Structure formats: C-alpha cells, structure tokens
Amino acid sequence: MMNELQQMDQLFDRLFPLFRSITGEGVRQTLHILQEYIPLEIEEIPSGTTVFDWTIPKEWVIREAWIKDSSGREIINITNSNLHVVNYSEPIDRIVSLDELKQHLFTIPHLPDAIPYVISYYKERWGFCMSQQQLDALVDDQYHVYIDSEKMDGVLNYAQAVLPGKSKREVLITSYICHPSMANNELSGPIVAAFLYQRLKKWEQREFTYRFVFHPETIGSIAYLAKYGEHLKENLYSGMVLTCLGGKDKSLSYKMSRKKQAPLNALVEYMVKYGKSDMGMRSFSPLNGSDERQYCSPGFNLPMGQFSRMVYGQYPGYHNSLDTKEEMTIEALLQSVDELEEILQLQELNGFYYNLKPFGEPQLSKYDLYPDLNAPTIRGKSSNTLIDNRQHLNQVLMLLNYADGIHSLTDIAAKMNYPLKDYKMSIDRLKEAGLLDGPFRDQQGEIG
Amino acid sequence: MMNELQQMDQLFDRLFPLFRSITGEGVRQTLHILQEYIPLEIEEIPSGTTVFDWTIPKEWVIREAWIKDSSGREIINITNSNLHVVNYSEPIDRIVSLDELKQHLFTIPHLPDAIPYVISYYKERWGFCMSQQQLDALVDDQYHVYIDSEKMDGVLNYAQAVLPGKSKREVLITSYICHPSMANNELSGPIVAAFLYQRLKKWEQREFTYRFVFHPETIGSIAYLAKYGEHLKENLYSGMVLTCLGGKDKSLSYKMSRKKQAPLNALVEYMVKYGKSDMGMRSFSPLNGSDERQYCSPGFNLPMGQFSRMVYGQYPGYHNSLDTKEEMTIEALLQSVDELEEILQLQELNGFYYNLKPFGEPQLSKYDLYPDLNAPTIRGKSSNTLIDNRQHLNQVLMLLNYADGIHSLTDIAAKMNYPLKDYKMSIDRLKEAGLLDGPFRDQQGEIG
Amino acid sequence: MMNELQQMDQLFDRLFPLFRSITGEGVRQTLHILQEYIPLEIEEIPSGTTVFDWTIPKEWVIREAWIKDSSGREIINITNSNLHVVNYSEPIDRIVSLDELKQHLFTIPHLPDAIPYVISYYKERWGFCMSQQQLDALVDDQYHVYIDSEKMDGVLNYAQAVLPGKSKREVLITSYICHPSMANNELSGPIVAAFLYQRLKKWEQREFTYRFVFHPETIGSIAYLAKYGEHLKENLYSGMVLTCLGGKDKSLSYKMSRKKQAPLNALVEYMVKYGKSDMGMRSFSPLNGSDERQYCSPGFNLPMGQFSRMVYGQYPGYHNSLDTKEEMTIEALLQSVDELEEILQLQELNGFYYNLKPFGEPQLSKYDLYPDLNAPTIRGKSSNTLIDNRQHLNQVLMLLNYADGIHSLTDIAAKMNYPLKDYKMSIDRLKEAGLLDGPFRDQQGEIG
What we know:
- Chains A, B, C: Pfam families: DUF2172 (PF09940), DUF4910 (PF16254), HTH_47 (PF16221).
- In chain A, 31% of the residues lie in helices and 22% in strands.
- Chain A is built from 13 helices and 19 strands.
- The first copy, chain A, has helices spanning 4-15, 25-34, 98-102, 132-136, 183-202, 219-235, 263-275, 292-295, 325-328, 330-349, 390-402, 409-413, 423-432, and strands at 41-46, 50-51, 54-55, 59-68, 74-77, 92-97, 105-106, 128-129, 142-152, 155-163, 170-176, 209-215, 236-242, 253-255, 280-282, 304-308, 352-355, 404-408, 436-440.
- Residues 380-387 of chain A have low confidence and may be disordered.
C-alpha cells in the first residue's frame, strides 16, 4: 500500500496532462479523478447565466492546434504541450507570412526555453505560445496555422464536499482547477486540499464544519458566490484559499484576510511572532493573488486568507512551462498538508474561554494543580508533579486569570512565549477539573 | 493687464501703510480695499456688546503721536512708522524726564534696528516704541511726549463672502486684519485669502460652499463666533486659519486641528507622508498661534487647522518693523495660493466612495478597465491601453475593493505610494462606468 | 517625643518576633499592636466556612518545636527562630535516623547561612527548616524530633479602618499580616500602611473615602472578598496592594492593574514618563505577586495595582532568615510613605475637568491670568506677575482648552513636560475665577 507521499505523487501524474480551462472536459476529468480522494458533489451552471457583473462563458473545446512551415514540417503542436495554444483561442486555418504570424505568437524573451501560458477568455483572438528559441529559429516563410476549436453552449463546473463538525459554523478550504499543465500554480492547491480532507476526516472530533470547494479561478469563485455567498456570510467562521503550495525550501506564507478580525489573521500572527519563526505573512491586497480577491470583495468581506509557499509571480516558472513537478516537489505539498493541518487544529483550540470559578483563584492544590508545599528545595518526594513543571503552572494561572470571554487564547498565550499547542494539556486539565469552559468563538466585550 | 503676482504686489502696497488696530478706520479702509478683490459683506457689532466672556472695546482713534527733546527736535513720530505708539495708548501731553520716559519706552535690545509692535488693548497705558539705537542715543533731558488719541463708542467690524457649492456643507477660510504695518504677520493672510477666493470662483464646480471671513484677531473671531458659531457647528465640514504665509524658501506648514477627525488632518498627513515631502505639520496647541485658538476652543471644537509658512515667533521680524515685504516676498504668497488651492481640490476629491458592484470584482474588461489578454509580452497591438498603465489598473482594483464607505480615499491611497491627485482619473472612469459612487463625507462604520 | 522614623522603628521591633501564620494568636497580636496606630476593626470568620472555592482552615497552634541529638544536645529550637518549623506542621514526637530526618529538613544550599521559610497549609506534613551549614554539621545519629502543635477550630482574622472623604467612592490600601519573622516581605507593608493612614488623617480634605485592610495573604483576601467583594465592585475607584516596600537604594515600583483603565495605571505611567524618572513599572501578571492576584481575578477585576520596592523573589533574603531590618531599612519605609502619599495626592487631583466658559478663550486678563501688555521687554513694572511665569500661563491655556470632560489631567499634562503637581496652583486659580470645575472621575465620551 502506498504512503501519503506516493499517493500524492500518483495523483499529480494523473492530473498533470489534462487540458484544463475555465470550462469543459478538462475541468470535469479533473474533478472526477479528485472524487477518488474526496467525495465531491459536482455542480454546473449553464453558459449565458448572469453571475453578478459577469456572464458564464461558452465552453471552449480544443481538438487540434499546430503550425507547419511551407515544407509541411511541424513547428509546434499542442500534442507536445497544451500551453502551445492561447487558451480560449478562436479557430483558424490559414497560410500566413512570418510577419503576420509573429503578431499571434507569445514568448518570454528572458526565459528562452519557456513556453508561456496565455489566455484570452473574454476577447476573441487566435494565437500560439512557444519558446523564444523556437521563435528565433523561424525563417522567412509561409506558415500554415491551424486551430480546431469551438465555443459552444455548455456549463461551468465546480464541486464541493462538506465534512460535518459539532458546530454549524464553517471553515472553507478552496482551490482552483482551471490551468492546463502547470504544477505549482495549478495542481499544488487541489492536491493539498484533497489530502487535507483525508486528514480532517480522521480527527476524533471536529468543532467546525469543513467545506472543501474546487472551482475555476475568478469566474468560478464568482459563480460559486452567486449561489453560496449568502450561506457563507451567515455561517463562515474562517477560510483559506490554497494556491502555489509547492517549492523546495520555501516557507509557508499567509496572505492576511481583508477582514481584520478574521480568526486566521490573529492565529497566524501569533504563530509567526511566538512559535513558528519560518512562516511568513503578507498583507491583504486586491492587486494580485487568487480567489481571495472575490471572497474578500467588499460585498462579502469574508474572513478568508490565503496560503502559499512558492508565491505566484515570484518564481521563474510562474505561468509557463517551467512550472514542473521537479520545481514544485511533492515533498513540499506534504509539508503544506502537515502545516495546514496543525493550523486548523490550533484554530479549533483558539477562541474565548471562561473561568468557571472567577472569584479569586480556585484552590488549585485541591485539583492537584498547584504545589502543596512552598519550599526552596525538596529533598523528599513531592506528592505533586506540578512543582517540576513551572510551565504548566504558569499556563494554568494565566488561563484562569484571563479566561474572561474577552481575551482569546492567542491574547493569553502572547503574554508568555510558549507555543500555542502547549496550552492543550493545561486547557484539558482545567476543563476536567470543572474550572474552565470553552472555547467560544465570539468575544464578549472589549479588553479594558 | 497685470498678472496675479503684480496684482498681489499692488494690493500689498495699498494695504501696508494703513493704521490698523482691532477697531476703527484702519480696519474699515482695509476691508473696503479688499472688497475690490472679493465681494465682502461688512458687519459691525457695537462697543460694549458682550460676546461670551468678553466685551467689545471702544474704538481707538489715533491722530498724532510724537516725542520731542527740550530743543524741540523730534525724536520719533508715528508719521514715520505706525509702530511708534503703543496700540490703544491713552492720550498724553506732558514734559517728562528721561528716567520717567524710559518707563514708557519699548525696544528690542537684541535687534537694535527694530521698532517693536506693542499693544495694550484692555489695560489703560501710554507708551512709545522705538529702536534700541534710538533709545541709546537719548541724553539726559526733558522730553515732550504727545499722544492725541481717543477711545469712543463705535463698532468692531468683520466681513465675509460666501461662494456657494453643490452642498450646504461649508469650508471656512479665515484671516485677520488688525495689525498695523507688518507684512508677513498681517497682510500675507488676507492677500492669500482674497486671491484664493478668485481661484475658487473659477472652478467648474464646487462640492462645498466656501466661506471667507476677515476679522480682527482674538476679539474678532470671538465676536464672529458669538453670531455664527452655531451655524458653523451645524454646517462646517472643514476650515483653515491663514497666517504668516510669506517667507522665501519656507515650506508650507499645517497646524493640525484640535479635532482629530478634522478632514484636513488626515489629508495633510497623507500628503506629507506620501506626496509632498516638503510640507510640514505641527501639533495643535492652544499656547500660541492665531484664531484657531478660538475656533478650536472646547465649546466649538471646529474641524479647523491653520496654515503658515514663515511661522509667527520663528523669524526675526515677528511683531516688529523688520516684518517687511522684502522678507515676506509676494512670490511666497503666490506659492501659498497655489498650494492651498491644490489642497482644497484634493479635499473635494477625498471622502468615502462606494463600489456599486461590490460582490466579487466587476468584469472590468467589459468597461475597457482590464487587460483582455493575459500574456507576458505583447508583440501585436493590444486593444487595451490599460496593459501599459499598471498604475491605473492598481488604482482601479484598490478603489473597487476598498470603496466600502469605511475607508476614505486617503486610507486607500496610503496602501500604495501614488500621489492622491493621480486617483482623479481612475475615480472619474469608474464613475463613468457606473461602478463607483462618491465621494461622501461621512464614514459608515469602522474599519475591522 | 519620637519622630516618624523612630516610631516606625519601634513598631517594627514590637512586631518582628511574633509567630504569625495565616490564622491564630500571632495574627491577633499583630492586629492589636497595629490598633495603636490605626483604629482597626477586627473581624473573624470561623474555620470550616466556605469562601468561594476555598475553606477556612483550622487555627494552627504551635507551642514547642526542636530537634535534639542522641546526647540530648539541641540542634535547633523555634525559640531561636520561628522559621525553624514548617508553618502549619503536624505534631511529632519521635526518634528518627539521620536519613529519615533529612526527608523532613529544608535548607537553601546556595545560601548556607539562611533558614528558609516553608509552609504547608493545606497538606498534612511535619518538617523543620535550618541553614545548610547546620545540615552539613549533622552526623549519623538518632535524633529526637519534637513538635507540639495543634490544629483546632477557630477563626481567620482580618481588620480594616475607613477614613471618610467627600465622596463615597473608595481607595483601598491593603497589606498582609501572615508571615513570621521577616522584615521586607512581611512587616514593610503593614507599617507603611499604618503610617500612610496617619498622613491621610491629617489632610485638610479628602475627595475619596480611604479603606485600609489587613489580612493574611491569599486565603485572607479571598475571605475578605467573599464578604466585601460586591461592596468594592460598586464603590472602588482605585486601590493598591502594599508589599516588600523596603530596600536601601531601591526605587518604588508599580505593578499595573489587570484592569487597563485603573486610575493608577495612567497616573503612574504619566509620572514615570514625565515626572519621576526613578519609579519603575511592571506589567500585571497572575504568575506571582501578592493579593492583587485575588483582587484582579476576572470575577472582580478591581482597579488595583501593587507597590513594591525590593520586589519579592528578587533579593537574596526573600522567604528566609536573611530578610532582616538591616537589609530592609526603616528609612526606605519612610520614603515609601512619602512617595505613596504624593501619589495619593495626585490621584485626588487627577480626573476630568470642565471649562465653564468653553466658547472661545475667556478674557483672562480680567482675572489677572494673562499679561495685559504684549511687549518684547518690560522696562516698567508690570501690573501682572504672570508675564514672568510662562509655565503658569501655559498650564492655564492648556487646561482651558482641554478641560472638556474627555481629556484627563494626565492627558493634558502629557502635552507638556511639567510635573503633574505643578498644575495644582493653576487649577486652584482657575477654580477661584469660576472658569474651571472638577475633577470628575468619569470620562465623558472619547477623544476624537
């Protein structure tokens, strides 16, 4: 039986070659394969439907696309790379001069080996992408350009799976499934999401309900919000967009939610400051990024952040054929799964607690939570293990004093420099002793 | 026909010699000359009227004032400088010894050439001002001191002109007209205000109603507030006291309003941080300054700041005869008019905008506001000029995401480092596209 | 007649030898002696009474305790130091081997001369304390251990005295009276509290009612809060726990209240920043300290801070026999009384004032509060002393502008760098002139 890493590697290899776009068979094939890992329900919305300011486009079907020179020699063909044709390109079948051809060719001059990824969803165009080296090798000639594509009434697909928890309040985990053969910028998100689902399914209990959503980027999240936006406004506690989660030796990086009080903003800020020095934070910005631009648009302003590792726009392979499995590494995806699972666990732990005996300190020695002897050195055997565990005692005292429904666990933990997860044992023991209740998710009043 | 600079210079020369005080003919002559530049309505309030804790003083009339020695030689005479007599001095006609005379003489020892400006409005006194050199030249002699002055029932005058705008909310621009022959500390404010009026009159449209007010300092603003204070509390959006606006090579400097949310506080802070590095800011303080001490008294707490350039108390000529046109320069006044006009234009632009399609991003390419092609290099002609104007696109995305009635334009602009005025084009295009509404002047809720 | 220092010294010598614990005769003897200095009413609460999560323990009576070797030679005896027996020790009368004895002996290895102070209030145990040197001198022998102690139904005592003021709002000053012969960690607090009482009794007027409370630490404050906690929640304006107030060359140090808006937090912060550079501040923490842990528990969250000088845990003599009068010094206690009295005086002065003529500046020269002449130099005699007192004038102007019920006196004073106490004269003069009212204790609205 394969281990998790091998399973992720296998899933990657099955998904990579598919010819995805924002609509069509590639999306559906991708979702069907993912259903083997996560019980997705696939939904569809017909071409022509209005979703807010947008209209669902026709499905784009691409059957064949190539360029041949006057001798019939093939210059490029999408059978070699599905990046070779401009995504959503119009059909064409003509003989053109080199000069005219060049008006329809896209390259990346400073990356002579790379085929760029180019799209023109909403403007009618035809075009090809190739490496700069291929372009430089073209001679003055007549070229046959051939694209057998079609735009037809169809649907836009997205899919979701819900993992219920004790509370109806939800945590949304979402990624996109609309780019052709790219690794970090396309497949890292869905693969991490699918395996994160499997981890969460195994948890003994879940406080929150977890909703996993896969859709094409931008138009897909807008279509999803048109149907589920109101539900999310009512029920969403926290959420994350997953994108570009590969990259060897790259640290996990959190893009803050536009909504300042988003639970992940405070949680990650705490972890960065006190626990996990290698995690990074980025400000929210609508200027670039992924679907958080939609989820955090002012009409929704949902408490969603975004996690990334080898961030879009900041590595050579971004949006071109150099975005490969080798550069991404499956190991980095597994590390992302590990780290995101821990963050989600801490999010379950975080919140507002109540001291159930808030008038003075409880008599902690009754509960074996305090030393029963006050002495500088103990020669005999102490009846109480706490005396050797000052950290635990400190946490107990801190929790009891600040568990007032106003200070969150991160607020409390920030007063000392213990990692957040170390509070779990103290919280559990205080709850067993009947001294603590929580976590609750909403602050009662202001710190003052 | 004279240009603006020449007109300002001419106005200066007409106003400089007048013998102004807080009441009387000098004030009225000054206002009558200003009426040629701005349609002021002059109002009056009788001596003896109670205005809050104060009483309008009698008018002071000064006809003659000089000192002669025992040989009849004239030592000083106000025909040479209207600073030679203590403002509001009692009449006197006596022969006095040098010792007695010295009890009534004011000089500035560390500025031997300067005649100080001395006032005693509310305490009966007689006195003369002269240079330290003149004092040092006095010999032991009998001196004839002569002041032909009179305090009589009359009025205190102030004047105003209103330039209507689309909104009834007002912007107040005020200066004082009560000092005798001083340039920077007296005439810079009224001249800048008058020419600012002429600029604003020419604007194609004005969002706000602009109110220009001229009054004597302190007692004048208190008298004005006694009549118009309630009107201002209801209608004032923003305002500025103009004083000491000359000074070659001096930067414009803003004294913040006591009221922290005063629109100019945020606007100027933004400009200083991001746009106009040579502008300065000063904290509010009631310890010194001009009529903002009254406008910002706690009973009114109006959103008024103060603009200055060569600041009172911080240049040698302050309150003495060295405060001349040469030190002030008419060019600095013109620069003040230019800069204040720009600030007022930005104040019209600033405020809270609303994204009219706030659910997800609008489909910007429909409005020619977004590139219709996503490609690393464009060899052909783009149908869309935006692709070469990343700044414009960034502004569009920022405005749409943060135009929520909570973030002001300065809040939004502070997220990038473009000058505020550069947003005008993006705002106009978004409004044309039906995507943006505003500016509104009041924040809806808190950033959170 | 003795001066204050001599009286304090005498009181110290009377209290030091008493055998105090959290209950019993030692506590009562201590309170009876203190009654000669402060009219304490002594209250009692029976053993077995439930106070919140705690139960009042039985009284511990200790009559005799010693160790003898097999030759009958006395090794230690509590007649030499009342630290030699573990506080609340069970009775014992046995012959034990050296090995067994060592299981019941406490020392401080790194302080070979010191006898530690050890308690075991809530766990049954017997034990002795001695210096490491004494321990090292023990030879292999049979030892007679003898403790004649008894736990019997009795009471827990605490005591209080109230000094009435104009307002029913209270200031609480509290210390503990439960440690045997230690100087800084036991007697410094009660002695300073008693002499502070005498100072406050002599004040011409008191705005607040002052409540002085003495109780055993922890169980005592919890018992006190069980009876008076609701009263304090309703009436307490401010309060301080006094502990460890000795220490030559040590600065006074304030541990902030958990309640951020506690008046002492702002007052001491102001003093540290602007007036009293040698005073220190410590954050609130429930991890260690004294009865502020109870007063600031979340069910009460009272506005109480704590004052200390040679802070618990931070000096060699802490909780052992090196905590002597010589290390503490009576002089340091007197200095604490001086400094705390000044802080209490400033607390009476601090608060929110109202300008009674808030529309514009009042005509200050009418009240002899403003120069009646504006001149660079005065050769004659000014009728007004203010002209030579710019500090006073600045304070007057600041107070009038910011006395709006929103800015506290410390907020106002923070705008300049005059010591807080210097405002007293300006405030008094403004009140005499009918221009100012206050101080009030509650803020009206927010600074904005």
